Amino acid sequence: MIANFAQRILDNVQKIFVGKEEAIRLLLVAVLCEGHVLIEDVPGTGKTTLARALATTLGCTFRRIQFTPDLLPSDITGISWFNQKTQEFEYRPGPIMTQILLADEINRATPRTQSALLEAMQERQVTADGVTRPLERPFLVLATQNPVELEGTFPLPEAQVDRFFLRVTLGYPNSSEENAILERFGAHDPFKDLPPVTHPQEIFEMIEARQRIHVESSIRDYMVKIARATREDADILLGASPRATLALYQASQALAGIRGRNYVIPDDVKCIIAPVLAHRLVISPQAQLRGRNAQDLIHEIVARIPVPVES
Start and end of every AAA+ ATPase domain (predicted)? Predict the structure, then answer.
């Protein structure tokens, strides 16, 4: 059931976004877990196009915020303004009141503005002028970040990085994919002909189906051992949080469902572990000087932890 749903979404998104099936599947994992995604890559690789194509395919409302240094928290959450006709204050919703929010170049806003997303990303609600308003579900934040250009940017706080369910990198297309991009976008805008192929109610049904995917106790122990190993590694200053362990559990369920199974196997955990954990780890300066990165350390940790096998 989940596999058919995922294939339908994948085929429709690829009418717009050429190639990168693995990146689209990671976004589908996030959708099935109602998790937020940090899309990190150089400009022009299609980060915004992918977000728009996914929102249209899912039949969800979509808003975009261009993050800049002068952006204020109220520009995101909305403001209360005084209506002189009614002599009352009225709430004007901000762009966060949507289902899929594209936070473009999120690291260009100040930490104060970035923190306006914290409540929405965790509790799925917005508090403005003392009034708390729930967000429409499903609610996903797709944030983009340019890892190359650092001038005029602000690093994301660890509390916010940890709220991103997973991180996706796109990379450059190969020659055949780039030719297909020129052919597809050269004559007309393909977004005009892109139909939604699902709706929020079906997404909720798929989320419930994902929650029923079986995770055997030895697989759960395997995930916990990996998470705890990141906290005990000498080269890692900040390891995976309990929120990260829960994200790994849910993402493994989603990946198993996309692959057509109703149970999780160790290969699901191994496949999804880097996108879920790598961006959450803080590497020690000594390890960085030796050329180590989070991906390498995760692979080393996974290699030394015994894989559960069927008795």
Answer: 33-174
| Residues 6 or more apart in contact with residue 201 via CB below 8 angstroms | none
Domains of the chain by start residue, with CATH: 2-203 (3.40.50.300), 213-304 (1.10.8.80)
How many whole angstroms separate alpha carbon 21 and alpha carbon 18?
9
Q: For residue 128, give both structure tokens.
A: 């403005």
Residue-wise DSSP of 288-311? HHTT--HHHHHHHHHHHSPPP---
Q: How many residues does the chain have?
A: 311
What pTM did the predictor assign?
A: 0.89
Sheet with 140-145, side-by-side order of all strands: 62-66, 100-104, 140-145, 36-40, 164-168
Place of tokens 């998790």: 35
Residue 133: per-residue pLDDT: 87
**Strands, E assignment, 42-157:** 62-66, 78-83, 88-93, 100-104, 125-128, 131-134, 140-145
Q: What is the mean pLDDT of the chain?
A: 89
Q: Scan for tokens 């780039």, then name that residue.
A: 178
In sequence order, which ranges of the chain are alpha helices (DSSP H)? 2-13, 21-33, 47-58, 74-77, 111-114, 118-123, 158-161, 175-187, 200-211, 217-232, 242-258, 266-277, 285-289, 294-304
How far apart CA 124 and CA 234 sit, in angstroms, is 35
Strand bridging mode 131-134 / 140-145: unpaired
C-alpha–C-alpha distance, residues 142 and 100, integer Å: 7
Q: How many CB atoms lie within 10 A of CB 157?
A: 13
- The string of pLDDT tens digits covering residues 221-260 is 999 999 999 999 889 988 999 999 999 999 999 999 999 9
